[in-house]
Amino acid sequence: MMPEATGWRERFEDYGLLWGLLLVVCILSVLPLARLLLEGIAPQGELSAEAATRVLSEATTWSATRHSLVTALGGTILSVAIGCVVALVVSLTDIRARNAFVFCFVLPMMIAPQVVALAWLQLFGPASPLLKAIGMAPAMGSRNPLYSPQGIILVLGVQYAPLVFLTLRAGLRTLPRALLEAGLAGGAGPFTVLRTIVLPLMTPPLVAGIALSFVSCLGNFGIPALLGIPGNYLVLPTLIYQRLAGLGPGVLADVSVLSMLIGFIAVVGILLQDLMLSRRDFRISTTSSVARPFELHRWRAPVEAGLWTWSILVLALPLLALILASVVPAVGVPLTLKTATLANYDFVMFGHDAARRALFNSFGMSATAAVAIVAITVPLAYFVVWRRSRLLHFVNLVIEMPYALPGVVLAIAAILLFLKPLPLVGLSLYNTVWIILFCYLARFLVLGLRPVISGYYQIDRTLEEASQIAGARLLRRLVTIILPLVAPAATAGALLIFLTAFNELTVSALLWSSGAETLGVIFFSFQQGGDSTYAAALGALTVVVTTALMLSTLLMASRLPPGVLPWRD
Amino acid sequence: MARLTIERVSKSFGAFRALDEVSLEVADGEFMAILGASGCGKTTLLRQIAGFDKLDSGRILIGDATVSALHQHVPPERRRIGIVFQSYALWPHMTVAENVAYGLTVAGVRDPERSRRVAAALTLVELDGFAERRPALLSGGQRQRVALARCLVTEPSLVLLDEPLANLDVNLRASMEDEFARFHARTGTTMIYITHDQAEAMALADRIAVMDKGRLLQVATPSQLYREPTDETVAGFIGEGMVLPVEVRAVDGDGTCRADLCGHVVRMRCAPSQKPTRKARACLRASDLTIVPPASAGVDARIDHAIYQGGHFRLEAHLEAAPQMRVHLDVPEPSALRPGQSIRLHVGDGWVIPAAVEGSREARAV
Exposure of A443 by Cβ count < 10 A (0-12 exposed, 13-18 middle, 19+ buried)? Predict the structure, then answer.
């Protein structure tokens, strides 16, 4: 009746699963970046500084770097300003309809940046039906004011303000009420409390938000591609894109150097964040309940009006402009009830082969990535949360890399990795959907891991131990006990991955090939080819799908750990 | 059913020694309580027996098989034990029947055998008719019974109960205590009951193992533990004992001796091996003390506090001869005694605690 062995089978299952997962993480997260680094040291397998010297002595490299820094810093400053104000107002005051506002505020972040850029172009362009309606449209044929560094900064700022908002909001949630009340009791007014207590304590999330916003602005491709390329204002991601698109893989050594350059800037940004936070102790020691909102009294209605006006300006108006542009029969035709048409939608959904393929590809790859990442992260989070070790701490960091670094870095790394057929099996992933899927898995792994980890933190571990005592081995415990318990969090993670991949352009712009198009790529090529009505229709479609999926998640929101769905307050 | 043997088990977390050479033998079918304040190491010991943690040194055997040793560790899923967790740990996504059936499913037991055994287990804990409910819809006591049924359905050799009554209200506790006792009588399973509540341990257990700071202080029957503690900490912990220094003058052959408490000579119980000594310690109970007229034999004390406890006053006092020696006793109401008053106390009984070295060796050798 007693155990016949000392559990070799349990150990095998345990270690087998752990090392299997570590192998997957290494292939997805470590291998591509290591390959890119190798290319930097020894291009084409030979130790040489020739490519690096050539690229770094070109004027275009440095002008693109300068443009990247200008737009990224500008976008960051704008997003931090907007994000901070909104986070403070939403968290510390008694405004009404908080959830609805947060949903609208965060929505632009979930929509593809290139679609947002097009929406803004439509809003400010000479053909803008909205500006025409108020008689403020620029003259026909004049240049759209958004085709400029200022335009890029504006749209970047609007796009990533929610990022800053979310990190700061998460920090403000944990701010204990007693700290604020102690300040007020000491005779300080609300604004003094804000300046001397709230903001200093919120330095860590604020700095984290700044770093996140900077890295995102730096790596963004869609916005500078739509707004910068027409005016030949190139940033590093668009420069890489143009080199690769124009000359093919022959310039791999050069674009590797460029992608390492942008990766370097991103790493400096992240390290600066660490440096700033390591110099002071920001730990909050009390654990009293969360801060009660300040009452705005007669200022409440004006503040609410201000917030909703903002939503209308940056969300409703651009999207309306996009939708109006999508029902115009052709560029330049005035829009009236008579001329309005759904033909553009019909064309992009059914009339255009590549668009139809892209719809299929994007749906398929996003869904596959979402499901596969959940399958990896549910067991992986088990080890990360419940078997802490230095190795797993390292894994946790490594998974972050492909997402933290600009997308072009991962794309170039993937090209280097898969340009030649795979050894042993002789299969080539290059120029297929599989290389894009690989990048989705690598890049979005962390998006799935975070919610699943917070899901684990909500489980009482004795639930697992009870099934272990009942005789269930690890795999059975994972499937019968843990998976059902983390299912809501995992579903939220999967949706987040699906939405991000579905709206993605940065990676696929460099990796697509005929037959392996994505929605982002088709959208971009419509826009590049001057078919902005088709682009608007396609963009509007993705907005509808994205918003619908986001709304659908609110149905299960009560079963989720707080903070898993960014668009739910 | 199986006996459990724990041999010199130690476990440290960093510099903190959670278990310090703990040895314990639990007989087949015995109900053993492990009693101690929180942080004493009782939960660590439970996790060692269950196999959730690996030990640093020592050995644990279930029956004749070694389940934990330095280079040998049978995983929990192979130990065939049952645990009733403090939080019950019922799976919220399964019905009561599915919770109970889980262990059988894992063991490869199929219907109709499985549903027959699940039904029998639910009958045993008087939960027929609840099979299709979700745990969230049950009361605390019902959840407790589901946890019990789930742990017993696979007929484990050993059942560990981790403070199973801690989350229940007082009234429910008493009835669940009865239930555990009847249950143990009916099934005859070896049970290890972890608790911080000495009344619970006394009411239920065949023997009690008292733990403190990672060490096992004494293992004995409830009555032995109360009457003959072998350790000062145990004496103070169980039944609010008073530990006072005495001088053992003469040892009689019948297990008693004459002890001198500040000049008051008292007949006390002692171990057969007790030797006369100037430095002994005695354990007295509140009920051993009575107030006598000033002229009678006794020891003088001065009252510090008189606390009304419903029906009687608890008097806290110190001895006049040695103010650092504090005593307490209960006097029925009405009582005119007030703080500051002097009283003469007669000591009717007491137990001379065996010398410390001997005591700790005895506890470890059990």
Answer: buried
